[in-house]
Each structure stands twice: as C-alpha cells, then as structure tokens.
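Page 42, continued from yesterday. The earlier attempt failed because a stray header line got pasted into the input along with the sequence. Redoing it now with the clean sequence only.
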Amino acid sequence: GSGPANGSTMSVGSDTVTYSVQDAAGRSASCSFGVTVVDDSPPQLVCPTASFFDGPTAPAGACSRSVSYTAVTANDNCAVANLTLTGGLSSPGPFPVGTTSVVHEAYDVNGLVASCSFSVVIRDQEAPNVDCPGNDVISTETGLCSAVYNYTVPVGTDNCGAVTTSRTAGLGSGNRFALGTTTESYVAAATGEGLTVDACSFTVTVV
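This time it went through. Structure tokens are written below.
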C-alpha cells in the first residue's frame, strides 16, 4: 500500500491511502480512499484590555498624547503568516483627544483570519471657551413697551476639535425684548472627551 499509515499524524491537506492484497495464487486487488485534513482553528490574538487607557489627559495646550501599549501577539495551531495593525495607531502614537479604536488582524498559513481590538481614550484637560457681551440697558421704542435688540452672538472656541455653540435661555439677537430684564445664556460644547463644556450669560434690560 501507499499513503500514511493508520494512526500516523497527517499535515493539513489531502492524501490518498491505498491498500493492496495478494493471495497465494498471485492474484491481487487494491482499494484506495482519500484523507483530507482541514485547519478550522483561526489564530488566537492577545490584545491589551478592551479599554487599555481610559482617562489620561493631553498635556496643557496639546490635543494629543503618546501612549505605549503592550505589543499585540498572535499564535496558531499551524503557524501565523502575518500580524498587522488594521485600525488606529501603533504604540506610542501620539493619540488624539477622544477615543481611538486600535485593531489588529492575524492570518495563519492556511488563510484563516482573526482580529482583536481595544480603545485608547485621551481626555482634554482644557475646556472650550465662550464669551458673552456685557449686560446692557436699552430704552423702549416710541409708543411701545419693548425694543428690538441686536448683539454679537457668542461663538465658542477650543484648542482641540470642533465646538457647537447653543443658546440655552433668552430670545436671541434681533428679537423684540419686553419691558424688564431678560437673561441670555449660551453654552459651548466641544467634541471629544474630558472638559467639553463652557457657558456664559448676560442680561438685557428694557426700561
């Protein structure tokens, strides 16, 4: 016969096992069958914990921070063909303010793939800034108990990322203010993690 013997270890792939028999008269016969060994075990990766860094702040005036994380490893029952970074940043970065998902992917020699991921969260220690106009007193319009008032609408700024500025109280510039005092309030909200909100307010008094 030919092919692997019964009980022997076979490698991944296909092989043919053939058995032959011959009687005392010299007559022979044979049979064959195929044996296929399939690798169904993808690589095993070891990443840092799911939230490896959660909370470090960027240095003052900066929008990023260097982060060193433990090297990702992979092993396989056959062999690992390659291990690559497919998302995020390699150690030590630098990593920007916010959440960065770091993804690694491994292929084994038989084409099976697996991946692992974790997050690096960097927080901004500097809040955005929004400045309001000063308090103001205006007179009613002739014959009315109100007045239209225009002011420079506050716009927030931040050292990192975009800022959305919203009015949270009051009427807004260009509207008619009734007799008395109205408080105009604004909030600036920055994207990212950490100190992301600032607020200001001022009054408009119609007399």
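Notes: The two ends are 111 Å apart (CA to CA).
Reminder to self: strip header lines before submitting.
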